[in-house]
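notes to self, project folder thing:

trying the whole complex as one job this time. last attempt i did each chain seperately and stitching them together was a nightmare. four parts in total, labels are on each line so i dont mix them up again. if this works i'll redo the older ones the same way
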Amino acid sequence: MEAAIAKSLKAGGKKLTRARKAILAVLERNTLPITVAEVHAGLVKAKTDVDLVTVYRNLAMLQELGLVNAVGFQEGQMRYEVVHGRAHHHHIQCRGCGKILDLMLCPLKKLTKLIEEQTRFSVDGHALEFFGWCPQCR
Amino acid sequence: MEAAIAKSLKAGGKKLTRARKAILAVLERNTLPITVAEVHAGLVKAKTDVDLVTVYRNLAMLQELGLVNAVGFQEGQMRYEVVHGRAHHHHIQCRGCGKILDLMLCPLKKLTKLIEEQTRFSVDGHALEFFGWCPQCR
DNA sequence: CTGTTAAATGCAATCTACTTGCATGTAAGG
DNA sequence: CCTTACATGCAAGTAGATTGCATTTAACAG
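result (full assembly):
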């Protein structure tokens, strides 16, 4: 557990509970974004029983604080990954087996400025995921 | 109703039913991607009563045939837009009021090739949506 | 260390988006 | 028309996510 995380929680008036430590530990063990059910399964496996509702509530809260990132692959559910210590990046998912890979790149910095000029929106985020077929499923 | 659409349906062994004409008409009236509930509401308003289940089934089918595009804004539901006659594009949604704008651009053609080389996936699609705050909500 | 309290949790119930099974209806080609 | 494969409506069922409320616990003052 990083001190920086404890600090962010405190700044948000949040407590550092057993459940939160365990949830963050599960996320830190996984590089790739995982589902709520997978987080919960990880907790059970680590003998840290936490209600599924608590997992939902904490992931939402950690996302609000910017400690966790939500990723949607059009699967009908969200996936989550820790932000801390990782560069901004995107993903690709195989349409066959569902396998996910990190793509350590982002081509959108310049484009964001252009969009802000064109739309008068202030842009504060984007979702970019690729889809295709992995070598095994092709 | 475009002849091209009737042709695509026939090629897929699909019939050109009252429900399908009406669903496509509702989508064609909307430039921006709309929810299943909004499509259904549009049908009711046009005095073309079609069961919500039929809307779901047809949107899924039209998407398979490539006549309709599904867009996800992490709202817990999908939105749909017609493909026919429109250039490939992306969107931005306001985090305050939910308003959506079309962005008639796509910076990903070159990047896709690079990703295919790096990952050995064959890339056949991507999702790119921007988020921010519109002038009114800012 | 102990008492206080605001925040967090667990459990049960609920909600919403979406899907499935099956009997009936209908478009399309002969 | 007649046939038939495809499409629809209705009812019931899933799955992911949320809410209400009583109980527990982290954090902090004293």
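what i see at first glance: The two ends of chain A are 40 Å apart (CA to CA).
need to look closer tmrw
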